[in-house]
Amino acid sequence: MIKLYFFYRILQNEIVSNDQAIRNFAKSLESALAAGATDAPAAAARAQAAAAAALAAALRRYTSLNHLAQAARAVLANHHQIQQMLSDLNRVDFRVVREQAAWACSCGSAATAHRLEADFKATLGRGASLEQWAAWLETCVRDALAAHERRADYTARARRLLLDWSFYSSLVIRELTLRSAASFGSFHLIRLLYDEYVSYLIERRVAAHNRAPPISVMQRPKVCTYSR
C-alpha cells in the first residue's frame, strides 16, 4: 500500500507536502522500536527489527522518488531546456561509451546499445512526459530480463542489469562533463531519477519472480563473516 500510495501521487503530479515528516519518521523508526523491544523475546525482537528496517528503507525510497520526480517534471516541461539537452547529447561520442562499457558490462549487442541510444534521443526530442519516460524505462527493464524469466539466474541477472545500467549512465554523464555541457545539471537530475526508478522496477520484478513482497527485496543482506 505504501508503494502504491507514493507512486500514484508521483504519476498524478501531486506533491506530498509531508515528505520530510515521513523521512524523519523512517529515520527514527528502527531505533524507536528497538528501544521498545528491550524486554521482548530475542526472536521477536529480531523479527521486529528486520520488519522495521524494511519499512524504513521503503519509506526513504518512495519519498526520494517522489522528490526527484517532482523536480524532473519542471525540466521535462521546459522546451528550451529539452532542446539544449538534445543538442548536448548529440555531441557525445557514443562509440567511445559503448567500447568502454563493453569491457565491463554485459550490455548485450552493439545493435541493442544503438537502439537504446536512438530511443532515448527520440523520446527526449518529442518532449515526452514523465509518465511516458516511466513506460519507456519499464519496457527497457522488461526486455532486458525477458530471456531470464523462470530461470534460476533471474535475480542475479537483475542485479547485474542494475549495475550495468548505472555504469553505462555514469559514462554518458562523464562525457557530458568533459564537454562542459550546458544542460549537465538537467541530465544529472534526470539520471538520478531514472537510476532510482530502474532500481525500483528491478526490485519489483525480482519480488514477483521470487513470489515475495517487494519490501522484502529491500532488506539489508546479512554481513558475511569469515573465520581464519
UniProtKB/TrEMBL annotation:
It comes from Diatraea saccharalis (sugarcane borer). The lineage of its organism: Eukaryota, Metazoa, Ecdysozoa, Arthropoda, Hexapoda. Residues 20-208 form the RFX1-4/6/8-like BCD domain. This is RFX1-4/6/8-like BCD domain-containing protein. InterPro entries: RFX-like (IPR039779), RFX1-4/6/8-like_BCD (IPR057321). One of its GO terms (molecular function) is RNA polymerase II cis-regulatory region sequence-specific DNA binding.
